[in-house]
Design goal:
By secondary structure, this protein is of the alpha+beta class. It has 5 helices and 5 strands. It has helices spanning about 10-35, 55-65, 75-90, 135, 160-170; strands spanning about 45-50, 95-105, 110-115, 120-130, 145-155. Strand 3 and strand 4 form a beta hairpin. The chain is globular, with a radius of gyration of 20 Å. The chain starts with 9 loop residues before the first helix and ends with a helix.
Length: about 170
């Protein structure tokens, strides 16, 4: 019986550490945002499209091919990073919680959904793997994922049954 165990490499440990750290940050900031979140009367939808600059994307692919930022080949990490970058640049202080859900996944596109800790906001992130990058990448498995779109849907909190019955009696 072979009792020799394969030791984890830095390449397998770093993404796990990043996911745990990102999760802890989101939970901490998400709990704070629940306290200051103001109730909204309607559903609000905002869509952000990331520009697809072919030259910059090809340069990023070459950078990853050179051994830098291999996480760009993981659609889940690209989606999380894109959302974090978008929210850091905006006035929206509420960050999404983990775990994220794979809503739709295909060979060249994936949609991940994050939910706020209070359940009132959903963040849908679409990432794409461009076919025209395959010659630069060498194979589909080495092709990077690129953020394409983020959709943020915020719903008003539900009224309690006591509130709705008071409104009917008034």
């Amino acid at each position: 019986m072979n009792t020799h165990h394969k030791r984890p490499t830095l390449r397998t440990i770093v993404p796990v550490i990043l996911r745990i750290t990102f999760s802890l940050i989101l939970w901490t900031l998400g709990a704070a945002s629940m306290i200051i979140a103001a109730p909204q009367s309607n559903e609000h939808r905002a869509v952000y499209n990331f520009p697809a600059d072919r030259t910059k994307i090809e340069d990023l692919q070459r950078w990853v091919n050179g051994g830098h930022d291999p996480w760009c080949r993981d659609p889940q990490l690209v989606a999380a990073s894109s959302l974090q970058r978008l929210l850091a640049d905006s006035s929206d202080i509420e960050l999404a919680s983990l775990p994220l859900e794979l809503e739709r996944g295909q060979k060249t596109s994936a949609v991940y959904t994050f939910h706020s800790l209070d359940g009132l906001t959903a963040y849908r992130v679409t990432v794409r793997r461009y076919r025209w990058l395959r010659p630069v990448a060498g194979s589909q498995g080495k092709t990077i994922w690129v953020p394409e779109r983020v959709e943020i849907v915020t719903r008003a909190p539900r009224a309690s049954s006591q509130d709705s019955s008071r409104g009917a009696l008034a």
